[in-house]
Specification:
With 134 residues, the chain is an all-alpha fold. It is built from 7 helices and no strands.
Length: 134
């Protein structure tokens, strides 16, 4: 997974406040899209993406400014990546199409676990239900 972590770090380095604002405008539609994810091998992916979308949205709208910008940038990159239907593994590939999306999302959740757990608590969410599992 070190390669995925490096991939996420490089992608997050390109995220600016302007990109976050652009993603913010797309999030309502993307959230609907994320609820439609059904991938038995990655059962937590939809919920994880929804959590990241909410965190980015709350940060961008000023409702929660305690997240480090690096965590917001990584989360934004993960949302952009998951929204694109073509990635390292195209989403259409049976049983594997969401493996890369799941890996990217977990590469954001795991190193930022402390900040995201605090955010989850502030939103009355059970962090253990979000999980960093596939």
């Amino acid at each position: 997974m070190p390669e995925i972590v490096e991939f996420v770090s490089r992608g997050a380095a390109a995220i600016t406040p302007a990109v976050v604002e652009k993603v913010l405008r797309a999030l309502p539609q993307w959230k609907l899209e994320f609820t439609q994810i059904y991938e038995p091998l990655f059962p937590h992916l939809g919920q994880q993406l929804d959590f990241l979308a909410n965190a980015v949205e709350d940060f961008a709208e000023g409702a929660y400014k305690e997240l480090p910008f690096y965590a917001v940038a990584q989360a934004t990159f993960a949302l952009l990546y998951a929204h694109k239907k073509v990635g390292i593994i195209p989403d259409a590939v049976l049983n594997l199409g969401r493996a890369d999306d799941s890996s990217v999302v977990r590469a954001v959740l795991i190193p930022n676990e402390k900040a995201f757990a605090i955010y989850a608590a502030s939103q009355d969410l059970d962090w253990t239900r979000i999980t960093s599992q596939p």
